[in-house]
Amino acid sequence: xxxxxxxxxxxxxxxxxxxxxxxxxxxxxxxxxxxxxxxxxxxxxxxxxxxxxxxxxxxxxxxxxxxxxxxxxxxxxxxxxxxxxxxxxxxxxxxxxxxxxxxxxxxxxxxxxxxxxxxxxxxxxxxxxxxxxxxxxxxxxxxxxxxxxxxxxxxxxxxxxxxxxxxxxxxxxxxxxxxxxxxxxxxxxxxxxxxxxxxxxxxxxxxxxxxxxxxxxxxxxxxxxxxxxxxxxxxxxxxxxxxxxxxxxxxxxxxxxxxxxxxxxxxxxxxxxxxxxxxxxxxxxx
Length: 286
Hints:
This protein is an alpha+beta fold.
C-alpha cells in the first residue's frame, strides 16, 4: 500500500454535516479485525472536519467496544456537544451493522502560548542505529517462516524501527519498558489535520505489547486473549508525522486481567509532542 492510499483511507468521506464514512485498507486478509489506530485516526479526522480551522485537538479519550469488521465500511457519527470561545468538544461514535464499535470524546483548543516544562527524552539509540521492521520481517521469515505471510512482506508506507525485538514463539521476559522510532516514508504536506490524524494511527503500534514484556507472552500464544480496551491521546505541540518521532512506552501495572501502558512521543530534537495511555485485556486461558 502506498502512503497516498493510506492517507486517503484515513481522510473519511463526509456524507452529511456530522456523518462520515470510512473504509479499511485491503491487507490481503492479514488483519482479521480493524486495526485500532485506524479507527482512532478516522474518528479524529471526522471530528476535525466539524471544528473551526484555528483549533487543534489536544485530548482524546476513547473506548473500543466491539471488534471492527475490515470488510465493511464504518460510519462515524459526530455529536457537536459544545463550541466555546477557546475550547470545542466533540463526541464521536463509530458504527457497524447498527451497533457502536467505538466511542470517544475529544477536546479542541485555539492555539496559544503558556508556561512550559517537560520530561527529557530518554537516552536511546537513534533510528540510523536500528533495523527497520521490513528488515526484521526478512530475518523473521528465516527463523519462523510459517509466521510470515505474503502480506507482511509487502512494502509499507510507514517506517518503524524498534529498540527491542522479541522471539514471537518463545519470548524471554523483559522489564516493561521499550520504544520505537516511527514516521511516514514520504511527505504528508503541511496540513496539521493530516499530521494529527497520522499520529493517532501510529499511536497504537506495538503499544499493548509493552505490558506483556515481563510475562514472556506474545500474541502468538494460543492461550492468550488480548484486545485494546481504551486509548487516550494528549497533543502538546504541533508535530510532523513525516519526520522521525520517538515513541517511549512503559507499563506501570498489570492487574485484574488488564495491562496499563503509557507512552511519550518525542520529536527527534527532544520535544515532547504527545502523550498516550492504553489499557488492554490480558487473559491466559487453560
